[in-house]
Amino acid sequence: MSVGSYTERPTAEAGEKDGLSVPWSRPRPKRTGVSARPISALTLLALLAAWTVSAELQLVSPVFLPSPAAVWTKLVVVARDGFVDATLTQHVAASLWRVFAALIAAIGVGVPVGLAIGISKVGRGVFDPLLEFLRPIPPLAYLPLIVIWFGIGEPSKVLVIAIAMLAPVALSTAAGVRGVSRERIDAARSLGATRGQVVRHVVLPSALPSILTGLRIALGAGWSTLVAAELVAATRGLGFMIQSAAQFLVTDVVVMGILVIATIAFALEFVIRRIERALVPWAGRE
Amino acid sequence: MPHLTLDKVTVHYDGQPAPAVERVSLDVGKGDFVVLVGRSGCGKTSLLNVAAGLVEPARGRATIGGRPITAPGPDRAVVFQNDALFPWLTARENVAFTLRLRGVPADRRARRADELLKLVKLDNAGDKRIWELSGGMRQRVGLARALAAEPEFLLLDEPLGALDALTRERMQTTLLDLWTAAQVGVLMVTHGIEEALVLATRIVVLAPGPGHVVRTFETHFGRRYAAGEPIRAIKADPAFAAARADLTDAIFEGEAA
Predict the structure, then answer these.
(1) Do B242 and B185 fall within a single domain?
(2) Cβ-defined contact of A186 to B130 (cutoff 8 Å)
(3) Residue B175 forms part of a structural domain
(4) B227 and B143 together in one domain
(5) Is B74 in Cβ contact with A189 (below 8 Å)?
(6) pLDDT over 70, % of chain B
(7) Which residue in A has a C-alpha nearest to residue B52's C-alpha?
(8) What start and end residues bound the annotated signal peptide (chain A) (predicted)?
(9) Are A205 and B88 in contact (CB < 8 Å)?
(10) Per the structure, how many domains does chain B have?
């Protein structure tokens, strides 16, 4: 490259206001035309259309793929009359209760554990191997053991979900704690903060964005575990509903159940993002 | 009158072959503005951290008012280059942080914080969030927060290092104003030669390998500003240019030009 080519950098655009700004850093182009959202909507519509067409043309048997209309009808029917002795609302309520009870338990244990891992070598020594051991085990593998230990009641179901949520909560908390800037801690100490005050007033709030991310991941893990948790001796719940339907090949209820879970998970994700924006508006802007 | 004193301090970090600083002595009295300058790796920040109680010297003694320094404390408030403010708090709450730790009632600490914000010329920024403030404003909040601890000494670790040149110049006079108003001793680390001259009552020039003192200058430009002389006139003084040449020579002494 010749030296002369340096002089060919783009000159300031007509609309550029700031005379001091570097001339070759052009103003960021305005977003024109497409954004991601309508594309996503279109993708969903296309998928729905393909589903409708293939069901309409009977490309596959309704036992394998019921039509969207059938699934919608089923939703209305189950919402009104119920399926396997409980209405849709009751199934949803049972599942939501389990997931949230588990979430609260996971926060109660996971945040202190994550804090211990993040701030003390002893804490890390004790809890890190335990979490690493627990994390990769699929819930279906430890479900029988939980049932042997704690019976087939509600506590077992909540526990199975909570165990799946524990690692993401604890590890995100630990990552957040370890990411607190040295200067911030030193500044607090030089302002007279004791060790306990540093943890409460500096470390925890600094780790909050990371903790909330952990909760989001944990909720995802919780919904994935729900079906496993409701495998044994459940009489209500979305996971139970799907499994019962599958046993009798009521495929439209299976599909409906999947869509209900997806909708709820999507709504929760939205709510948590809102909470994040309200609680940690500084995240990413420091 | 308490003095902040480092006596033949050697700093040697774990796992390092050579000490970062060897046998450096410093004395900061109340009312002094001592500036440490020197090339990278000369141990300026290490010395400041020893004074802060954040780093323990391998040999030598660090004392304040005759008592050994063993831990950080609000008598020596530190301001860092990256403001190290708390983004979950407003500017006012940041300033009041140390008062909250001490259990001062909410209304009294808010009033005190507003006074301090006024002192650093941020009268109306109390309710602002940290990320809404510019770099210079953040450093002002950081200074007010440090002053809220009512320290005897302010330890400034390149507090203006991340600011643009124009903001930096304005902040220098702010620092002098605060130093005069708060009647504290200041120990400051900087890379700026002119900055050192404008601010200091004493400039300590350090050189690396391991960090040691090469020269000490007593200067008076900061006091002249405090006495009312405009900063531009001081900088235009031929004595200022001469002092800058001397200081530059001392910093690059022994290094090929």
Answers:
(1) yes
(2) no
(3) yes
(4) no
(5) no
(6) 98
(7) A190
(8) none
(9) yes
(10) 2
A190 with B52: Cβ contact below 8 A: yes
Same domain, B64 and B132: no
Domain hosting residue B125, numbered range: 86-150
ipTM confidence score? 0.88
Residue B229: which residues within 8 A CB-CB, separation 6 or more? none
Question: Is A253 contained in some domain?
Answer: yes
- The answer to whether residue A158 sits within a structural domain is yes
- Residue B141: which H helix or E strand, with range? helix B135-148
Burial of B154 (0-12, 13-18, 19+ CB in 10 A): buried
- Chains A, B: CB pairs < 8 Å: 71
Q: Are A85 and A273 in contact (CB under 8 A)?
A: no
Report the CATH number at residue A77: 1.10.3720.10
B232/B140 same-domain check: no
B8, B23 contact by CB (below 8 A): yes
Structural contact between residues B155 and B149, judged by C-beta atoms closer than 8 angstroms: no
**Other residues' Cβ atoms within 10 Å of the Cβ of residue A215:** 23
Task: State the total domains in chain A.
Answer: 1
Classify residue B30 by burial, with Cβ atoms within 10 Å: 0-12, 13-18, 19+. Answer: middle
Tell me, what's the pLDDT at A84? 86
**What are the pLDDT digits (tens) for A18-58?**
434 344 445 555 556 678 889 999 999 999 999 999 888 88
Domain assignment present for residue A128? The answer is yes
DSSP summary character for residue A6: G
Running DSSP on this structure, what letter comes out for residue B223? Answer: H
Residues B49 and B103 reside in one and the same domain: no
Show the tokens assigned to A20. 């001091």
In this complex, do A208 and B149 lie within 8 Å of one another by their Cβ atoms? Answer: no
Tell me, yes or no, whether A239 lies in a domain. yes
Query: Going edge to edge, which strands form the sheet with B3-11?
Result: B21-29, B3-11, B59-64, B67-68
Any idea which residue has 């900055």 for tokens? B195
Which residue shows structure tokens 């969207």? A68
A153: tokens are: 């009641």
Examine the domain organization and report whether B186 and B91 are in the same domain. no
Interface test with A, best of B76, B86, B88 (most A CBs within 10 A): B88
Cβ-defined contact of B87 to A286 (cutoff 8 Å):
yes
Distance (Å) of CA A274 to CA A47, A221, A267, A269, B130? 28, 20, 11, 9, 21
Q: Same domain for B157 and B68?
A: yes
Kindly report, residue by residue over B88-135, the tens digit of the pLDDT: 999 999 999 999 999 999 999 999 999 999 999 898 888 999 988 988
Please answer yes or no on whether A191 and B86 come within 8 Å at the CB atom. no
Domain boundary among B119, B150, B181: B150
The answer on B211 and B135 residing in a single domain is: no
Question: Could you tell me which residues of chain A have a Cβ less than 8 Å from any Cβ in chain B?
Answer: 181, 183-184, 186-193, 197, 201-202, 205-206, 208, 280-282, 285-286
Q: Which residues in chain A touch residue B98, judged by CB atoms under 8 angstroms apart?
A: 191-192
